[in-house]
Amino acid sequence: MNFINLINFVVQMSIIDKYNKRVDKVNSLVCVGLDSDWEKIPDTYKKLPFPQFEFNKFIIDETQEYVAAFKPNSAFYEARGDQGIRELKMTMEYLQEKYPDILTINDAKRGDIGNTNQGYVDFILDWLGFDALTVSPYLGEESLQPFLQRADKGIIVLCRTSNPGSGEIQNLLVERKPLWHIIAERVKNKWNKNNNCLLVVGATYPEEIKVIRDLMGDMTLLMPGIGNQGGDVELAVKAGLNSQGKGLIINSSRAIIFSENPREEARKLRDEVNKFR
Ligand code: OMP
């Protein structure tokens, strides 16, 4: 457990409290996805010893003023083997040192049998030191215990994902309800004993967002699908806000980090979201 996590643990500040504090400080629900795809990183960075880290550092410094969370997707680091993992770790160390009040999410969509999940906890939540990670629900509550029992971390369960084909499985009817609805109910009624669960709900499905919001009370939702995936900010935000005018972590990755001006794009998204809060 690193120093910041230890402090959070000692003062019993939940990850959601940490997020909400940052939301208030910068008046933003925006999460920038550090999906630093090697193919898309500018050539100037590729000449440096730690290209993904240097690129991330640039994006973090440029956008942090408008940002409440950063979310690196593990895939883009794993793709480079040990060098990528090292640069992900360097990115985390940079965030923890310079911007410790910004929420960090590792988008890894993990989920295996219980003792294997413990390995993911050790790696992602403790060694890398992320505040939160994304998990798949399909092996059930018992398998997720190593994640769920971490009251000091955020466990973000895939519910209604943003991709166009997500309905193939997630819309299947179970007890006359779509599967995503059953997952949401499970999380609400059974899995969230430590008040550390969040749900992934794609911005591309505003009708479902509304149903999930009504069901989940004030629970915080991770909402990808804005930007390159075409989610409508107004519909998604209006459907998803909680009773505090918060409750959303609105992620955009490619549309910000590979734009001409990441700082300006982050500011624009922050302001657009705030128009509807
Ligand atoms: P952009 O489409 O470039 O904004 O990236 C979206 C990011 O969110 C990627 O890292 C995806 O893996 C992730 N994501 C989704 O796009 N859809 C989902 O339903 C869930 C996630 C996620 O868990 O973050």
Structure overview:
- The chain has 277 residues and is of the alpha/beta class.
- The chain has one domain: Aldolase class I (TIM Barrel, Alpha-Beta Barrel).
- Helix content is 49%, strand content 15%.
- α7 links the parallel β3 and β4.
- The termini are far apart.
- The structure holds orotidine-5'-monophosphate.
- Orotidine-5'-monophosphate binds next to β10 and α13.
- The site of orotidine-5'-monophosphate (OMP) has 20 residues, from β10 and α13.
SSE blueprint:
Elements: H1 3-10, H2 15-26, E1 30-32, H3 43-46, H4 51-63, E2 69-70, H5 75-78, H6 81-98, E3 103-110, H7 114-127, E4 132-135, H8 140-148, E5 154-160, H9 167-170, E6 173-174, E7 177-178, H10 179-191, E8 197-201, H11 206-216, E9 221-223, H12 233-240, E10 248-252, H13 254-257, H14 262-275
Parallel strand pairs: 1-2, 1-10, 2-3, 3-4, 4-5, 5-8, 8-9, 9-10
Antiparallel strand pairs: 6-7
Helix pairs in contact: 4-6, 7-8, 11-12
The structure holds orotidine-5'-monophosphate.
Orotidine-5'-monophosphate binds at residues 33, 35, 73, 107, 134, 161-163, 200, 202, 224-225, 227-229, 251-255.
Q: What is the radius of gyration computed over CA atoms, rounded to a whole number of angstroms?
A: 18 Å
Q: Mind summarizing the main beta sheet?
A: 8 strands, parallel, barrel
The CATH architecture can be given as Alpha-Beta Barrel
Largest sheet strand order: 1-2-3-4-5-8-9-10
End-to-end Cα distance, whole Å, is: 36 Å
Helix and strand content put the structural class at alpha/beta
* Low-confidence residue ranges: none
